[in-house]
Write a structure and sequence with these properties.
Helix content is 16%, strand content 39%. The protein contains three helices and eight strands.
């Protein structure tokens, strides 16, 4: 039984009768929305879990250390190396995780701008990061999360090497 519960325990936790739980499980009755909500509470999952096509989901990705795809971006800033660490294949949310490494020839660049939300986690180095009209001193271990439609980027490099995890989230059209 799901969540490590027996059928009787699930019925009790969901506040439905054991016979109703059994009839639902065997497809003999269609539960009401209220009953689905009680079952979800008993299982401690969102109601949406009952409607997802989990068997057809293909959005799992495993990339071994150092095995990401190095992306040669057209118009990329010189000295910024992008290593794609995974991808999403299903759903409405597009996720792009990159390991970004600033090579020795990299310089400041503060005019990145694109749709979506961006999360940066700095792994090494120290920089000044510009977001719109604000500048932040950022060190290894720091995180930034922001709307990427505003101008943003590294304004100054204080110590290197600089590397960070960059994850961009956008909705598919």
């Amino acid at each position: 039984m799901a969540a490590g519960l027996s059928g009787g325990q699930l019925a009790l936790a969901s506040e439905i009768s054991a016979s109703m739980r059994s009839r639902i499980e065997r497809g003999l009755v269609s539960p009401s929305v209220a009953t689905l909500e009680r079952l979800a509470q008993g299982l401690q999952v969102p109601v949406s879990r009952f409607f997802g096509d989990q068997a057809r989901r293909t959005d799992f990705c495993h990339v071994r250390a150092g095995q990401g795809l190095v992306v040669d971006r057209i118009g990329a800033v010189a000295g910024y190396r992008y290593e794609l660490l995974g991808h999403s294949l299903s759903g409405n949310l597009f996720v792009e995780p990159y390991l970004v490494t600033l090579m020795p020839e990299a310089g400041p660049y503060v005019t990145f701008q694109h749709p979506g939300l961006k999360c940066l986690y700095f792994l090494s180095g120290a920089v000044t990061y510009r977001y719109g009209s604000k500048a932040f001193e950022v060190n290894a271990g720091d995180t930034l999360l922001f709307d990427a439609t505003a101008l943003h980027g590294i304004e100054a490099i204080h110590s290197g090497p600089v590397s960070y995890l960059s994850v961009v989230f956008t909705l598919r059209a």
